[in-house]
Amino acid sequence: MKKFSILFLAFIALLSFSACTQDDDIVFVAQPDPEGIQFSNSFQNTYVLPSGNPDNLAERFVWNEVDFNAPTTITYELQGSADEAFGDFMVIGSTDNNNLGVSIGQMRDLAEDAGLDNDPETEAPNTGSVYFKVRAFAGDGEGNALEEFSETIGLNVELPEAEEEGEAPKMELYLVGDATAAGWDPANNNTPLFRDGENENIYYFEGRFAGGGDIEGFKFLQTTAWQPQWGLSNGELTNSDILGNDPNAFPVEDDAYYSLMVNVDEMTYTWEEIDESAAEVQTNIGIIGDATPGAWDDDTDMTQSEFNPHIWYIEGIELTDGEAKFRADDAWDLDWGGATPVSGETTVAGPNIPVIAGTYDVWFNTLDGRYIFIPQGEE
C-alpha cells in the first residue's frame, strides 16, 4: 500500500510539472497596429534656418502611439533624409514618447545634404525640401522585430543668404493667468521668464504667484496673442501645437513665492515653493553703463512691479554697443553684473553685461539676480 501511494504522488507531481511547463510556454505574438502611425502636428509652410543658433528647436514632431497587441517595449525612431526615397537617412533620435524635437542644426545638415547653401556666389539654391518619417518598433529593433513606418513628409526649408542673415530671434515665454501680475490679459506688460545665458532651451523664474481655491493658475505665451500657449496635460509640460488644443493651467495652491524652471527641449519643468522672507527689497534700481543713455555717469531708473517687489523693468530703452550693469540707489554700494549678453544671471559686483545696440524691454529680478533684454517688437 505504501508503494502504491508513493507512485501515485509521483504521478501527480509529474502532471503538475507538465502543466507549469505548458503555462511557461505561452507566447504573445505582436501584431501590426491596424491604425498605423502618422504625424499629428501642423507644419510650417517654410522653415527658415539661420546658422547662428544651431541648437535652437526648429520643429517638434508629434505622432500617435501604436499598439502591437503584446506586452513589449515600443520605441519610436525619427528619421530625416535629403532624399524622398530615403536611400540615405539620418536618425534624429529615438524615444519611448510620442514626440521628438529637431534642432535647426540637424535640419540644416539635411538641407546641405540636399545640395542647398546660403552663398549667393554659388549656383546652388538656398531653398528646397527635406524629408522625415517615424519608425515604431517592438523590443530592441534587432532581428525580426515588428516595425511600422509613417508616411514620408516633405518640409520646405530656406537657408538665409549670407548677407541677409542676422541673429535668429530667441523664443520668449511670458506669464499669463490669474496667478500672475498680468491676469488673463496676454498684452498687459506680461512678466517674462528669464532665459538661461548658456542654454537657450532653459528658462527660470523665481517670484510671487497668487494662489488659492478660486485661482485657476498660469500658462506661458510666446507672444501677446493666445497661440501658441504652454501649460500642462496629465501633469506633463506641453503646448497647444503638440496637443491640437489648449493645455491646462499650472495650478497654484498658495499665494507664495515659487521657483520655476522650464526646459522646452526636454519638455520638463520643476516647481517648488521657496522662502524669500530673508531677501532684501530694494527701493530704487537703475541700469547704467556706456551702452545706456546716461553712460557711466547717470542711471536710467527702472520700474518696480507692484505685484512682486523683486521684479524691475524698463520698456523701450535705446541701447548702444557697449556694456551695462544694474545698481541700487544710484550708487556703487550694491551693483549686479553678468557675463552673457541678452540674458543670464548676475552676481553682486559681477562683470559688465555685454550689450548689442538696439531698443529693448529690460527685466531684472533681484531675488535670483537673473536678467533678460528683449528686443522691442520681438514676439
General description of the model:
There is one protein chain. It contains three helices and 27 strands. The chain is mainly β and 379 residues long. The strands form six sheets. Strands 1, 3, 4, 6, 7 and 8 form a six-stranded mixed sheet that branches. A hairpin with a 6-residue loop joins strand 19 and strand 20 (311-319). It is globular. Residues 1-21 form the signal peptide. One of its GO terms (molecular function) is starch binding. It comes from Salegentibacter agarivorans.
Indicate the CATH architecture of the largest domain.
Sandwich
- Span of the ends, CA to CA: 94 Å
CATH class of the largest domain: Mainly Beta
Radius of gyration: 28 Å
Proportion of residues in helical segments: under 10%
Number of domains: 3
- Unreliable stretches, pLDDT < 50, 5 or more residues? 1-9, 17-23
Q: What's the total number of strands?
A: 27
| SS field, number of helical segments | 3
The biggest sheet, with number of strands, parallel, antiparallel or mixed sense and barrel status, is:
6 strands, mixed
Coarse shape: globular
Instruction: Note the beta-strand portion.
Output: 35-45%
CATH topology of the largest domain: Immunoglobulin-like
* Average of pLDDT: 88
Strand and helix order: HEEEEEHEEEEEEEEEHEEEEEEEEEEEEE
Main structural class: mainly beta
